[in-house]
Amino acid sequence: MVGASLSDAAVAVATMLVLSVISGFLAAAVTGDRTLAMTTMDTVFSLIAAERLLRVWLFSPKPVSSINRTCDQQGAYAG
Question: What's the total number of domains in the chain?
Answer without folding.
Answer: 1
